[in-house]
Amino acid sequence: MATTTRAVLRQRLSEAIGDYLSLTATANGATDGSTVVDSGLRNLAGGRDDDAFEGWYVLITSGDASGEIKRVLQSRQANNTLTLQTAFSAQIASTATYELHRQDPTLKHNAINRGIEELSYQVPLPLRDETIVVDNTLTNWDFETFVTATTTFTGWSSTGTPTLAQNTSLTMHGDGAASVAATGATEGLYQTVTINANEVTNKQVTFECWVYATVADAVRIRILWGSASYESHAYHSGSDQWELQSIQATVPTTATEITAVLEVTSGNTGIFDAAWVSVQHLYKYTIPTSMISGPNFVSQQLDRFDPSGTYVPVIRGTGPETGRILRLEGKGMLSRPSSDTATIEAGEPYVNIITAYAAMFYNRIQLAQASQQQRARYSEDMVMWGQEAVSLINELRRPRMGAQRSDHTWHMEEDSSGRYIIFDINRTA
């Protein structure tokens, strides 16, 4: 898949609106980061005039302070120096590259993101989602959502004070797994499912999770029923391999809760991934908000013991099977890059369309702030770029994804809370 960085998108937009200078510092600036020194400034149009670049914006693109934006307080051709209103976080050294913009690059970034949004709705990106496990009551079951600032996994709570980290090199599904190091006594993670235990008394519950450990008798999963009542799996063998731990039990009449526990004994570390808890069949699933159209196709894992393996259509008459990951295929939004190195999932000719939409939104932003004398120019440019974007869209549209032929297995519904996929059959698996 072709990709494009935000830096390239900003360059394309800046060139389109006639506001782009890419330069290189020729000597070290002040140690406090308050100046940029570049002898090449005098060769630019107006560069031999003092204050030629006053009010312009400097964006550092390499070296220390890369990505930072500061406004020029004054420019002096005699010493080839730009003095900033506020200093960069570090000295701008010789050979550091930078850009000069008449307009704040932040406005351009906002316009680029609006352009990406518009393109996404006009020509949506094919999207594959594998975040739903059939009948699973756990949230963040594959540990993809990790809050670095607080070192916590969304939806999970800690027993004791374990050291938590997201492992991105050892995973069974997706891009992350939960690394849990017990620093004191037996510690771990837990999540109480949102089911009234009284309503599922005497029903069978299944709890499965992939577990990785290098030490025997140190890592396992458990189900708590409340108070001192629980079911446990045998400890991991310490084989330095992933092992699927599975607990199947009947909810006791004394149960006050159903809590999934990931447990590590003192001084040891375990890695967990792809956990799920099922008590009863679920027929309604929320479609991820990243999927703006569809799904057009729905399939499930052929083998639940292979989270990265083959997917097959949901079988007519039986429906999806408990514990299998669903694959939804539809259309989604392009990524909106938050840094110069971040990318979107598009190359040419879609970059041309993004540039045109971004130029349209940029002029719309300027129009809202313009004086009466400037309004006509920004209005004309906004209309021109909007027409250019529509013309490019009409020349090149991705073919629409055909819908999966209906066999009365599933359908979609929507309300004020979101979009849902509904399985229409009496499930037997």
Summary?
The chain is an alpha+beta fold and 429 residues long. The protein contains 4 helices and 27 strands. β9 and β10 form a beta hairpin.
Overview of the molecule:
This protein has helices at residues 6-16, 105-122, 350-369, 372-395; strands spanning 4-5, 21-24, 35-37, 57-60, 69-76, 81-84, 97-101, 125-133, 146-147, 152-153, 157-159, 163-167, 177-181, 187-192, 204-213, 219-226, 229-232, 241-250, 259-264, 269-278, 284-286, 291-301, 311-313, 325-332, 343-344, 410-415, 418-423. Strands 2-7-4-5-6-3 form a 6-stranded antiparallel β-sheet, with no helix packed on it. The chain starts with a strand and ends in a 6-residue tail after the last strand. The protein contains 4 helices and 27 strands. By secondary structure, the protein is an alpha+beta fold. A hairpin with a 4-residue loop joins strand 9 and strand 10. The protein folds into 3 domains: 1-19 and 103-134 and 281-429, no CATH class; 20-102, Beta Barrel (Thrombin, subunit H); 146-278, Galactose-binding domain-like (Jelly Rolls, Sandwich). Helix 1 packs across helix 2 (105-122) and helix 1 (6-16) crosses helix 3 (350-369). The relative contact order is 0.15. The longest helix is centred in the C-terminal third of the chain and has 24 residues, at 372-395.
